[in-house]
Amino acid sequence: MKALVYRGVGDIALEDRPDPQLQQPGDAVVRLVKTTLCGTDLHIIKGDVPTCQPGRILGHEGIGVVEQAGAAVSQFKPGDRVLISCISSCGKCDFCRKGMTSHCRTGGWILGHLIDGTQAEKVRIPHADTSLYHIPDGVDEEAMVMLSDILPTGFECGVLNGRVQPGGSVAIVGAGPVGLAALLTAQFYSPARIIMIDLDDNRLEVARRFGASDCLNAGDGQLVEKVMALTGGLGVDSAIEAVGVPATFTLCESIIAPGGDIAVLGVHGKPVELHLERLWSHNITLRTRLVDAVTTPMLLKSVEAGKLQPEQLITHHFALADILEAYDTFGKAAENKALKMIIEA
Ligand SMILES: NC(=O)c1ccc[n+]([C@@H]2O[C@H](COP(=O)([O-])OP(=O)(O)OC[C@H]3O[C@@H](n4cnc5c(N)ncnc54)[C@H](O)[C@@H]3O)[C@@H](O)[C@H]2O)c1
Ligand SMILES: [Zn+2]
Ligand SMILES: [Zn+2]
After folding, report:
1. Whether residue 269 has its Cβ less than 6 Å from ligand 1
2. What is the pLDDT of residues 70-119, one digit of tens each?
3. Cβ of residue 267 lying under 6 Å from some atom of ligand 1
């Protein structure tokens, strides 16, 4: 089969690989229909994720059709149309039973990281019963691809951890696909104000269409003053950091209102400054999280009911044969007005 392989820092290629086989009774082999690229794949290619070794097939998102199911798989059979979660979870270990599936003893974020992933014609899914979802008839298949990772990440790591409240004020720093997913799902709670901050005016324009009340370009300076002016001098109740660099964390610390919640969902590779000299008396809460994708069933129902339209995040389509071109387009997102790329397998 054809597969996109990480060969070392800055080096990816479309290779011919043997088809994946069942290895454990709980495995399924899924034939991919659609997959996509994630900002995290770019981090891997840059060498930011050294646990991902050369030779790995990338990708942790997608939908497909079950081709083979192991003897212990009871919820899926060949021919079923399925959504693949970015998190593989056994459902039985101590972390899974606490709902912290991202830390599953025999799973977690392993797809396209520690085991071969979804940017291929076929993929082996461990713990299939608890890592796949049936796709309901009639729902938009491409919307489903957004449920593998970015919607649960924006919602769990951003909106839930930021304790977005009705009538509250929210700032989302970073209007990439994940920040925009937080913007879409924050609206479940009807906050009074959602301020979106990014360097890319095109992404800010998309954010405005998706329901942001205010959009600020981080390159224009005086961000803290501008956020304060929009919030009566108090700052925001929820600050969601969706970039993963020290400057955006510092910004969140500077704009959080007394009693507020900072939610960090960006992948950070460098230390940040924690300004306790200012924040100690402000009753703030800081939370981090690796996505658990435990809210996927809820998000799936919201999409099915038409309350959430994550297919709005898709800007480009490519065939698997052209996936290198897709990476190129995605890597120059601002130039190409790119958000999510659909890859047809
Ligand atoms: N916690 C998790 O489990 C989890 C899961 C998935 C992704 N992530 C992480 O979430 C982050 C966002 O993902 P994405 O796919 O949307 O990434 P992305 O790179 O597409 O988006 C990041 C956005 O930040 C903007 N930006 C960069 N520097 C900025 C600055 N100084 N001020 C304001 N905006 C700035 C960029 O213009 C871009 O639009 C990444 O760090 C990704 O690795 C975390
Ligand atoms: Zn991802
Ligand atoms: Zn587990």
Report:
1. no
2. 999 999 999 999 999 999 999 999 999 999 999 999 999 999 999 999 99
3. yes
Of 197, 226, 243, the residue with max ligand 1 atoms within 8 A of its CB, to mutate for a pocket test, comes to 243
Q: Are 308 and 184 in contact (CB under 8 A)?
A: yes
Nearest CA to ligand 1 atom 10: 266
Kind and range of the H or E run holding 254: helix 246-255
Q: What is the spatial distance between Cα 338 and Cα 217, in angstroms, rounded to a whole number?
A: 18
Q: In this structure, what token pair is assigned to residue 47? A: 């060498």
Q: Hey, which residues does 343 pair with through a beta bridge?
A: 35, 318
State which of 178, 195, 200, 222 you would mutate to test the pocket of ligand 1, scoring each by most atoms of that ligand within 8 A of its C-beta.
Answer: 178
How does DSSP assign 122-149, residue by residue? EEEESSHHHHEEEPPTTS-HHHHHTTTT
Structure tokens at 269: 């590779």
Q: Are 155 and 240 in contact (CB under 8 A)?
A: no
* Listed range (9-13, 42-46, 249-253, 327-331) with the worst mean pLDDT: 42-46
Q: For residue 169, which of 143, 155, 141, 189 has the smallest C-alpha distance?
A: 189
> What pTM was computed for the model?
0.96
Closest of 77, 59, 50 to residue 330, by C-alpha: 59
Q: Which residues does 161 contact at the CB level (< 8 Å), separation at least 6?
A: 261, 263, 264, 265, 287, 288, 289
Distance CA 244, CA 242 (A): 6
Q: What is the pLDDT of residues 235-278, one digit of tens each?
A: 999 999 999 999 999 999 999 999 999 999 998 888 999 999 99
Sketch out the chain's domains with CATH numbers: 2-149+292-344 (3.90.180.10), 152-288 (3.40.50.720)
Select from 106, 92, 86, 134 the least CA-distant residue to 24.
Answer: 106
